[in-house]
Write a sequence for this structure.
């Protein structure tokens, strides 16, 4: 049995807002006597919107009505009615995610689809989404190699390091093409990022620019990007990091992949380096020259400026019921981002790994409710279950302090015993479920218990990326 869903992806970035419409083919891959197992078997992009500059009312406020008008017009051009859309994603990324009214914008767009994955992507999550959208994870897996992916947009540069298809590290720097905005006719600077103020002689608001004036800015940004990857010795330029306390990656020898608006300028620059009213083309060419000097051939992502938006929500229904544990939970739970631990993290300092990754889903409002996921162990000892419970409690403390409760999803059959070990340690609501396979970048919905309270329906919503 197959079914086709209409899916829409909307990305509201620092520089641009855009939309993609896809047809997703879903197929039940389970045998007739098993619980249905739905998988995406085909994805076809049927409409790509124009690239619109993200409308702003000020440096700190998004024009919610303007964004809504863009989306409404693109729906009209695509011949798409709102009731035709079953799934999708609205992602606010880059500096835009830090604007005062980001949540207001999400609310303004909620009417355009039924069951959207809605998220304000923090810097680490954006790194993952962009890398997957550009195909860096698949390239790393298929070629059995390390790949460092750069997604360089208008306000931020997001890095994600993969090794044989597995995510190893992420980071983000406040580096992008629109940290300097220029009025095309007068060629004068109309906006300068606070990160750049006072750093470069002559680079001030109102100054008339030239490639020569902005060259030191582009060179310093490029040096910071190389330092963050561990390709140059660390230096003071690492103050461009979006969050404090991040260490350079160990990416020496890795293949380098690029997406984002600046990637277009890296591979196919316009004749005029100031053509887009910013320094994106100049930055792209400065990066390319730096890589050439190192003898590095950059890889162009399967998607560049559309790397994030090309991901749209897809549904896969599963059930959890053999050993679930829940207490005081107000079902249903909707759009919980998945925080997935790798096997080595599970075997090591689990609490520290959880604590470190919680920030992936933080936005300007702080932490948000997440679903902690890991593989688990078959037939663990009583002592091991108690250790897991202790580490989970310690790792989730920042989340618990903000009033959220633990949601734990394990693949192995141990949710009930793990829940029983957590229950005396944690007051309030608690949920543990098993038999659900999820990854970082997925979202899950958990429905109210059925079958006499013994089964929980789970919808896994994964950002599905087109493969080239």
């Amino acid at each position: 049995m197959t079914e086709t869903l209409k899916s829409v992806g909307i990305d509201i970035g620092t520089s641009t807002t855009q939309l993609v419409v896809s047809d997703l083919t879903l197929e039940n891959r389970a045998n007739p006597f098993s619980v249905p197992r739905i998988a995406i078997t085909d994805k076809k992009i049927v409409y790509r919107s124009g690239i619109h500059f993200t409308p702003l009312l000020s440096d700190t406020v998004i024009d919610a009505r303007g964004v809504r008008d863009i989306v409404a017009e693109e729906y009209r051009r695509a011949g798409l009615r709102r009731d035709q859309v079953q799934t999708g994603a609205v992602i606010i990324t880059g500096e835009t995610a830090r604007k005062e009214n980001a949540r207001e914008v999400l609310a303004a767009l909620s009417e355009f689809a039924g069951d959207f994955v809605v998220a304000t992507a923090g810097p680490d999550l954006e790194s993952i989404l962009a890398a997957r959208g550009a195909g860096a994870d698949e390239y790393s897996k298929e070629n059995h190699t390390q790949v460092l992916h750069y997604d360089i947009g208008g306000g931020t540069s997001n890095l994600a390091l993969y090794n044989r298809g597995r995510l190893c590290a992420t980071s983000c720097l406040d580096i992008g093409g629109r940290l300097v905005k220029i009025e095309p006719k007068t060629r004068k600077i109309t906006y300068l990022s606070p990160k750049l103020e006072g750093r470069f002689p002559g680079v001030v608001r109102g100054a008339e620019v030239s490639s020569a004036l902005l060259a030191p800015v582009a060179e310093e940004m490029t040096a910071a990007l190389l330092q963050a990857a561990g390709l140059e010795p660390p230096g003071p330029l690492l103050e461009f990091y979006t969050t404090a306390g991040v260490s350079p990656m160990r990416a020496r020898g890795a293949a380098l992949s690029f997406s984002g608006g600046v990637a277009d300028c890296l591979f196919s620059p316009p004749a005029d380096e100031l053509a887009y009213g910013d320094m994106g083309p100049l930055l792209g060419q400065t990066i390319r020259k730096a890589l050439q000097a190192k003898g590095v051939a950059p890889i162009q992502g399967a998607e560049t400026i559309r790397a994030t938006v090309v991901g749209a929500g897809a549904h896969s229904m599963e059930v959890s019921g053999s050993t679930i544990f829940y207490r005081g939970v107000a079902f249903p739970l909707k759009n919980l981002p998945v925080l997935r631990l790798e096997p080595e993290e599970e075997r090591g300092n689990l609490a520290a790994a959880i604590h470190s990754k919680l920030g992936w889903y933080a936005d300007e409002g702080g932490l948000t409710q997440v679903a902690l996921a890991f593989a688990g162990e078959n037939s663990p000892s009583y002592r091991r279950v108690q250790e897991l419970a202790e580490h989970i409690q310690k790792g989730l403390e920042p989340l618990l302090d903000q009033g959220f409760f633990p949601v734990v999803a394990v693949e192995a059959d141990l949710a009930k015993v793990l829940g029983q070990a957590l229950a005396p340690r944690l007051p309030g609501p608690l949920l543990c479920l098993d038999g659900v396979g999820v990854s970082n970048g997925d979202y899950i919905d958990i429905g109210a218990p059925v079958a006499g309270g013994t089964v929980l329906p789970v919808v896994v919503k994964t950002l599905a990326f087109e493969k080239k």
